[in-house]
Specification:
The longest helix is centred in the C-terminal third of the chain and has 20 residues, at about 130-150. A hairpin with a 2-residue loop joins β5 (about 105-115) and β6 (about 115-125). A 6-stranded mixed beta sheet has the order 4-5-6-7-9-8, sandwiched between helices. A 3-stranded antiparallel beta sheet has the order 1-3-2. It is of the alpha+beta class and about 190 residues long. α1 (about 5-15) runs antiparallel to α4 (about 50-60). The protein is elongated and about 55 Å long. The protein is built from 8 helices and 9 strands. It has 2 domains: about 5-70, Arc Repressor Mutant, subunit A (Orthogonal Bundle), CATH 1.10.10; about 75-190, Trna Endonuclease, Chain: A, domain 1 (3-Layer(aba) Sandwich).
Length: about 190
């Protein structure tokens, strides 16, 4: 792919917008690739919130590595893409579900429901080696799922731990699915 388009996609990933003159300097065949995910506002072209997941796909298409994509996005964008993937798969999503248990406050990043099923989703935007942290994150999520069961009425949820990048397929640790942002959509569409 053209270096100008690749640079454009990198800027969109990092900043979420392009200056108007930068977007207008793209040749028509390249501006059409990203144009339908952008909205013009105040002299900038912003990525439509509902199109963040498509921006990741475009980034892959223009040849950016998964590592480059992950290093270009913020934790907030990471969590927002996970939310969008859940909604695309017909889940109703509540961000930052807070609950009290024995006087302590706990939070689940994304709580998703669909046809009587519930998912407790934790987004871990770790950029460095994280294999030694997965065990603790799984234990924490299992505890939060136990807190959900202790509520009135009790809520039985399945747990998903979403990481930026796995070097291999999704897997289970105890009863928690560990997956990455690039495999999450396939996992949801095939499982739910």
């Amino acid at each position: 792919m053209d270096q100008q388009l690749t640079a454009c996609v990198r800027k969109l990933l990092k900043y979420g917008y392009l200056p108007k003159r930068y977007f207008q300097s793209l040749p028509p065949d390249q501006s059409s690739i990203v144009g339908d995910i952008l909205i013009e506002k105040e002299g900038k072209y912003l990525v439509k919130g509902s199109e963040l997941h498509r921006l990741l796909l475009i980034a892959i298409e223009v040849g950016l590595s998964r590592e480059a994509i992950i290093s270009s996005i913020s934790w907030k964008t990471f969590e927002e893409v996970v939310r969008l993937l859940l909604e695309i798969n017909s889940f109703n999503v509540k961000k930052h579900l807070r609950m009290r248990h024995h006087g302590k406050l706990f939070e689940i990043d994304l709580f998703a429901t669909k046809e009587g099923r519930a998912l407790a989703v934790e987004c871990k935007y770790w950029r460095r080696r994280f294999t030694n942290r997965i065990g603790k994150a799984v234990r924490d999520l299992n505890f939060k799922m136990e807190v959900l069961k202790s509520l009135q009425p009790p809520i039985k949820a399945e747990g998903i731990l979403v990481l930026p990048l796995l070097h291999g397929p999704s897997y289970r640790v105890e009863n928690i699915v560990v997956t990455d942002i690039f495999q999450l959509g396939d996992y949801l569409s095939h499982t739910y």
